Amino acid sequence: MKDDIPSSWLRPDWPAPARVRAISTTREGGVSCAPRDSFNLGSRCGDDPQAVAENRARLRRWLALPSEPAWLRQVHGARTIDAASAAVDVEADVSVAFTPDVVCAVLTADCLPVLFCDREGSRVAAAHAGWRGLAAGVLEATIDTLNVSGRQLLAWLGPAIGPQVFEVGAEVRAAFVEHNQASANAFKPLPAGRWLADIYLLARLRLKAKGITQIYGGVLCTYSDPARFFSYRRDRHTGRMASLIWLAP
């Protein structure tokens, strides 16, 4: 990676093997106009296609990416695909890679991006985990596809909507509590039957249930930091950030 990428971009603070490369972009550094200013990487959020193309070209150039990221058509589900053989815009919410120079990527603007690698540096994955995906088992599906024990995996939770502002209905709480009673700790009551949800805690509970103990990140709030992050909940018409991971040779 080059040293002149925007300073607001996030490099995961985790003890990943040296050959694992990972980064999460912010809204800084691109050419898109308001309200998707400026580094929008999403091609289906109403932006000028030429601006998206230029932003993606800068992403490849600045990060010296070995290949075009496996961009997904994300649907808030739990389908995983192998990024090495994925079709363009394949419908899935997880990509995995077991070989070098294959770039996994997910796009978010409040949903939770989760990056995975194993301790040996032999496999990586990127998962798009909004509340629907979490409830559908997207993290569990990712771990199963990686096909190693959770004890051998590391996970990094990228920027998502924070627990102070993520308001949901009772049906969301019920979906998680029915799966795991401990999930009740991730919800705080509001008036009129609404709840504040901690998507980071919900993700940690599911990761730990699959044996992952090395979990990092999970402290930022996209909604509360408009200077750095796109937020669909906050702005509706907005761009998308990318979280990427790949293996160097």
Task: Please describe what this structure looks like.
The chain has 249 residues and is of the alpha+beta class. It has a single domain, classed as CNF1/YfiH-like putative cysteine hydrolases. 21% of the residues lie in helices and 23% in strands. It has helices spanning 49-63, 131-136, 138-146, 170-177, 199-209, 232-235; strands at 20-24, 72-73, 80-82, 90-91, 94-97, 104-108, 112-118, 124-129, 153-157, 167-168, 187-189, 195-197, 214-217, 241-247. Strand 7 and strand 8 form a beta hairpin. It is globular and about 45 Å long. The model has no long low-confidence stretch (mean pLDDT 97).
The secondary structure category is alpha+beta
Taking the sheet with the most strands, its summary is:
6 strands, mixed
Outline, from the CA principal axes?
Answer: globular
Can you say what the CATH homologous superfamily is?
A: CNF1/YfiH-like putative cysteine hydrolases
- Strands of the biggest beta sheet: in what spatial order? 3-5-8-7-9-13
Question: How much β-strand is present in the residues?
Answer: 15-25%
Number of strands: 14
User: Could you name the CATH topology?
Assistant: CNF1/YfiH-like putative cysteine hydrolases
State the separation between the terminal residues, measured CA to CA.
14 Å
Task: Give the total of domains.
Answer: 1
Q: Please mark out the parts with pLDDT under 50 across 5 or more consecutive residues, or reply none.
A: none
Computed over alpha carbons, the radius of gyration is: 17 Å
Order of helices and strands: EHEEEEEEEHHEEHEEHEHE
